[in-house]
Design a protein that fits this description.
This protein has 243 residues and is mainly β. The protein contains two helices and 16 strands. The chain has helices spanning 132-140, 224-236, and strands at 45-46, 54-55, 60-64, 72-76, 80-86, 89-94, 103-108, 112-113, 146-147, 151-155, 158-166, 181-185, 191-194, 199-207, 210-218, 238-239. Strands 2, 5, 6, 7, 9, 10, 11, 14 and 15 form a nine-stranded antiparallel β-sheet that branches. It has a four-stranded mixed β-sheet with strand order 1-3-4-16. Strands 8-12-13 form a three-stranded antiparallel β-sheet, with no helix packed on it. A hairpin with a 2-residue loop joins β5 (80-86) and β6 (89-94). Mean pLDDT is 86; it is low at 1-31.
Amino acid sequence: RLAIGAAVFVVAAVIGINSLPGGSGVGGGPAATPTPSPTTTPTPIPLPLYPQTLLVPDPGTYVADDPFPFPVTIAIPAGWVGNVGGPYAAYLDKERDGGNGGAAIALTLSQNIYADPCNDRGFLDPQPGPTVYDLATALAKLPGFDATLATDAAVDGYRGKRLTLTAPDNFDGCTLSREGYRLWQLPLGAIFSLTPGERMALWILDVNGQRLVVSSETFPATTAQQQAEAQEILDSIHIEATN
């Protein structure tokens, strides 16, 4: 799915358990008021910088930060891998089991959109403008995708647009490049391309004047469990915008 290869990240979980002592007074006065044990906030574990990878052995809290410009805290289920790809991307991936299923989530900046995913016609010219609306409109008009209408949406309070792109079930008649059904390229060369029937949900956000895209990829064989885990990750995203 990414021309840079399978970047993977692994995370460890910190779980706090509180014990509340119970008790009842018998005869000699009122029962003692239970005193809650102190709780600790888990410290997010940083995702490594590509080409290092991290595989999550247990559910836990992780953070994608430097050189990625927005520290993003994420709750990641066991079995997912990921990394920070550099200043323009952070990746999470649930590997396919025997070639089946799988899911992926990415946070990206500075996308350069291809003109036609089916045919090698280079990049869209002109590229979309700088706003959320500009990118959402351009993606919805790309040939070759089944695109939903862009609707208002938000992630962690940051507002933007949401739409879904679905690739056709086969690429018959396409004159594809070696990367396949291409969507966009990032400044350091990572290429996002789709496989037959792949579905990519996109949240295009304005984060203090910068345009951030959160994408979630699923496939025809993605299991219900994998879809649920991807949604769990999406629901947990916390973006700490910096000036």
